[in-house]
Amino acid sequence: xxxxxxxxxxxxxxxxxxxxxxxxxxxxxxxxxxxxxxxxxxxxxxxxxxxxxxxxxxxxxxxxxxxxxxxxxxxxxxxxxxxxxxxxxxxxxxxxxxxxxxxxxxxxxxxxxxxxxxxxxxxxxxxxxxxxxxxxxxxxxxxxxxxxxxxxxxxxxxxxxxxxxxxxxxxxxxxxxxxxxxxxxxxxxxxxxxxxxxxxxxxxxxxxxxxxxxxxxxxxxxxxxxxxxxxxxxxxxxxxxxxxxxxxxxxxxxxxxxxxxxxxxxxxxxxxxxxxxxxxxxxxxxxxxxxxxxxxxxxxxxxxxxxxxxxxxxxxxxxxxxxxxxxxxxxxxxxxxxxxxxxxxxxxxxxxxxxxxxxxxxxxxxxxxxxxxxxxxxxxxxxxxxxxxxxxxxxxxxxxxxxxxxxxxxxxxxxxxxxxxxxxxxxxxxxxxxxxxxxxxxxxxx
Length: 446
What we know:
Elements: H1 2-14, E1 35-40, H2 44-53, E2 59-60, E3 63-65, H3 69-81, E4 88-90, H4 96-103, E5 108-111, H5 118-127, E6 131-134, H6 142-155, E7 159-161, H7 169-179, E8 186-194, H8 198-201, H9 222-228, H10 236-245, E9 254-261, H11 266-274, E10 294-300, E11 305-311, E12 322-326, E13 329-334, E14 337-342, E15 352-353, H12 355-360, H13 364-373, H14 381-395, H15 403-421, E16 427-428
Parallel strand pairs: 1-2, 1-3, 1-5, 3-4, 5-6, 6-7, 8-11
Antiparallel strand pairs: 8-12, 9-10, 9-16, 10-11, 12-13, 13-14, 14-15
């Protein structure tokens, strides 16, 4: 086991940890080969990955790690339903993942846990030569982001950042439009995370308003971030697709940001309206730090600007609020909004419905496997995300969303916190590629 891991690490280092670009739909047929994938964190998100990944016949799941007995039981039932042998369970304490990564003969692992554990778990996995996939989150410090990059470069072990929105059907269609120069040279892009999470942040599993110990799901830990932090806490769903469109870390890079936050009123208002105590409820007395709407403006090396919006405390329909704008036109697209204007094609100074454009530029992944994908989670985009992980891990090649993408996207959170504390002061975004961005080539969706 140890010898095999060392061989994989040395092979990767011998190639200079080369950034080889795998393809999703044209990879070598490896149906007779197996890959051993473990899972750390088997809550709702973790089980979604397990459901998709165990559908691949070549995947074996030797072990899982979770300290929640309910999540473990649900996972073991899911694995059985998929026709797989029951995996070994590591659940003694919060550090049991270390034991699993050292003891098990794993080729790869997916981490879907509380945000605070993402970096130490990724570092531990890479140190053990285990191909690593990690769910999305913002970092707690810039040092964390460098820890991921430095560990990858030292060990040669790859990390895939599991940003599923990059695979959304309309997002991939717009990516095709950008590459076909529909909008001309790009100037400005917008995205964000506008998602009413009040019943996620206060949830006892039965409609009750509670967080922390005794709560259900993410209310056990995610709400604490709203209480103690003020910044762009969840940047990657909006930023990930944008980065692929402007070739961030592959001919372009993010250079600086400035962030502002509104006052924090909506969580108190929710508690007041949804508890019998009303204004006397203890949660209304807490000093909630997270501004209800956080706005971050980002600059790039190639001269584009990006606006990200974080809004998880207010009553509103779900949206990621995408806009892509160039010298020849623009598109707004998201839930309930699909409008486009292309100079010389659209009626003068009038929006047109973007549906025909999105259908015309439908990505080959969705054309070829859309029917298979649709039940894969989040409208199908999780199907492609998890398939990419399996293919990249099997071939031990650099994923299309790699450690450098993880570092730069995660860095937005701590930098935005500093900027807000300093009245919107501009913060420089590190070059986590150490200059390699100038020569790296785009690979996503090709």
